[in-house]
Design a protein that fits this description.
It is built from 2 helices and 13 strands. The chain has one domain (9-182): Jelly Rolls. The strands form 4 sheets. It has a 6-stranded antiparallel β-sheet with strand order 1-2-3-11-6-9, with no helix packed on it. Strands 8-7-10 form a 3-stranded antiparallel β-sheet, with no helix packed on it. It has helices at residues 40-45, 164-169, and strands at 23-29, 51-58, 69-76, 80-81, 84-85, 100-106, 109-114, 120-125, 130-133, 138-143, 149-156, 175-178, 181-184. By secondary structure, it is mainly β. Bound molecules: 6-O-phosphono-alpha-D-glucopyranose and fe (ii) ion. GO terms for molecular function: glucose-6-phosphate isomerase activity.
Length: 185
């Protein structure tokens, strides 16, 4: 992790008993994001081992536990594939009615949301912004800036992830740079 990056989990655990407990760190390279970007040729020209984002999660309950909560910080690196901003895979929750909070920590981006009728909208994410993702709404983050974009999330431990729906049908709009500005297209 870089020097001025918001450190997780050490900084957040005031209860020292929690330090190092049940923390899951994952990283996704470009190769893990194959098929999600519009410009497949631009994607293939990029180094497939390039780091796209990292997630540190604190998972104090067994996955599926009703009533529990999970907490995570995602570090999404800047970049574009063609004119499309670097973004997370995106998902619905496996328990589709489960909600989630996201909030911005550093850098800037857009939260892209899609409901069950495939209506898509987006919210500007910046340090301190708070975003409520209702149940049934698919969510994905895009880094629209030129620096690291990080955000925190809190979601129920019985939410789960449904990636298949997005892998098959995608979102019905994409966040593209047009004349230097993000546009949902
Ligand atoms: O799971 P992705 O769509 O790749 O998004 C990356 C991560 O973003 C947030 O931190 C969510 O709360 C995590 O559950 C998710 O894993
Ligand atoms: Fe989620």
């Amino acid at each position: 992790m870089e020097n001025n990056k918001i450190v997780f989990p050490e900084l957040f655990f005031t209860d020292k008993n929690l330090v190092g407990r049940d923390v899951l760190k994952i990283s996704r390279n470009l190769s893990d994001l194959k098929g999600i970007f519009a410009d497949a040729e631009a994607f293939e020209r990029m180094p497939q081992n390039q780091l796209a984002y990292e997630v540190s999660s604190f998972l104090p309950e067994k996955e599926g536990t009703p009533g529990g909560l999970y907490f995570g910080i995602t570090y999404l690196y800047p970049g574009k594939v063609g004119n499309e901003y670097m973004m997370t895979k995106g998902h619905y929750h496996a328990n589709v009615d489960r909600a989630e909070f996201y909030w911005g920590l550093e850098g800037e981006g857009m939260l892209i949301l899609m409901d069950g009728q495939r209506n898509v909208w987006a919210e500007h994410v910046f340090p301190g912004s708070l975003h409520y993702i209702p149940g049934g709404v698919a969510h994905r983050m895009a880094n629209t800036g030129s620096s690291l974009f990080s955000f925190a999330a809190c979601w129920p431990s019985d939410a789960g992830h449904n990636y298949a729906e997005i892998a098959e049908n995608g979102f019905s709009a994409r966040l593209m740079e047009v004349n230097g500005v993000p546009h949902l297209i």
